[in-house]
Amino acid sequence: MENKVPTAEEFVKQYQKGSDYFCITKGEAINKMIEFAKLHVNAALKEALESIPCLGSSSDIPTYKEVEEAVLNCYPENLIQ
Q1: Residue 13: inside a domain, yes or no?
Q2: What is the Cα–Cα distance from 79 to 81, expressed in whole angstroms?
Q3: Cα(1)–Cα(43) distance, rounded to whole angstroms?
Q4: Angle between the 64-72 and 26-51 helix axes, to the nearest 10 degrees?
Q5: Domain that holds residue 21
Q6: Considering its fold, how many domains does the chain have in total?
Q7: Is 17 part of a structural domain of the chain?
Q8: Is 30 exposed, middle or buried, given 0-12, 13-18 or 19+ CB atoms closer than 10 A?
């Protein structure tokens, strides 16, 4: 992966005001959660694109199953922390 996606803790620390307390509205919290999700979706899509099997020849076309397996397994859930 080229760009490291921040963990939830790293992401939250960017917006932390002081010690362990946060003063944000419900709307702000929702917006930050959406922003965090978008970071992971974008990273997953980039990994999916790079993981599509290309065998180099136009006669070597990967099967649907090969592409499905590569794409669906390219961004493991454990990367979302």
Answers
A1: yes
A2: 6
A3: 8
A4: 140
A5: 8-76
A6: 1
A7: yes
A8: exposed
Query: For the chain, how far is it from start to end, CA to CA, in angstroms?
Result: 16
Written in H, E and C, the secondary structure of 28-62 is HHHHHHHHHHHHHHHHHHHHHHHHCCCCCCCCCCC
pLDDT of residue 1: 46
d(CA 28, CA 12): 12
63 belongs to a structural domain: yes
25/11 Cα distance (integer angstroms):
17
DSSP 77: G
Residue keyed to tokens 């454990």: 78
Rounded CA gap, 80 and 5, in Å?
A: 8
pTM above 0.85, yes or no: no
What's the pLDDT tens digit per position in 9-47?
A: 888 887 776 666 667 788 888 888 899 899 989 899 888
